[in-house]
Amino acid sequence: MLAACLIVAAAYLIGSVSFAVVVSKAFGLPDPHEYGSGNPGATNVLRTGNKAAALLTLAGDGIKGFLVVFATRAIAPLVGAPDWVVPLAAVTVFVGHLYPIYHRFSGGKGVATAAGIVFAFYWPLALALTVIWLTIAFGFKISSLAALITATLLPLGMFYQFGNALVSWAMLMIAALIFWRHRINIRQLLAGKERVIGR
User: Fold this and answer.
1) pTM above 0.90, yes or no
2) 87 within 8 A of 169, measured Cβ to Cβ
3) Which of 81, 105, 117, 132 is most buried, by CB atoms within 10 Å?
4) Treating both helix axes as pointing N-terminal to C-terminal, what angle do 51-78 and 85-98 enclose, rounded to 10 degrees?
């Protein structure tokens, strides 16, 4: 149990690293909490016009989700941690991204981190969802719409692949949190006032 607690705590602390903030500081850009949507994520960083910074933010947030799940799957059996620690670590790294302890619990909306997590569990589904996200995001120029549609498909795909497993329920929880973090965007979408990518 101690090993499980340490893994979960480490997952949260890793998830709390906001690459939007880290990359913005490295590039001399403003704090992403202070412009645009106020969301520390790749889409908001892109509003500065710095595509390299936005891409690095996207990659960093995705890689941390992937690495936590990948490492937990490798380490858990070695330290005698129970099977449930892997899906729990996935949820915890995601929660760390949404509510980071290093940034006064003001984090991103989790799409890139969720993608990294899914790539670690089942890359074919992650790849399919990425294609869907890209098609919608750059077809309609609305990142939130793409996020909400892929979040809807995520647990469906996991339940189809893994059945009634803990990992499927973990992905359902992550999808629900994505919807919660996009609640303002949902209202703006319904009102026809949602921001488009790059503005």
Assistant:
1) yes
2) yes
3) 117
4) 150
Low-confidence ranges of the chain (pLDDT < 50): none
> Dihedral of the CA atoms 10, 15, 18, 22 (nearest 10)?
40
Nearest to 142 by CA among 199, 197, 186: 197
Contact call for residues 11 and 68 (beta carbons, < 8 A):
yes
- C-alpha triplet 141, 186, 47: angle, nearest 5°: 40
DSSP one-letter code for 49: T
Give the model's pLDDT for residue 199.
60
Nearest-5° angle of CA 131, CA 132, CA 138? 90
d(CA 54, CA 48): 9
Q: Among 160, 148, 159, 154, which residue's Cα sits nearest to residue 186?
A: 148
Residue 110 belongs to what H/E stretch?
none
Q: Tell me the CA distances in angstroms from 113 to 30, 32, 82, 123, 140, one per residue in order.
A: 22, 17, 24, 14, 22
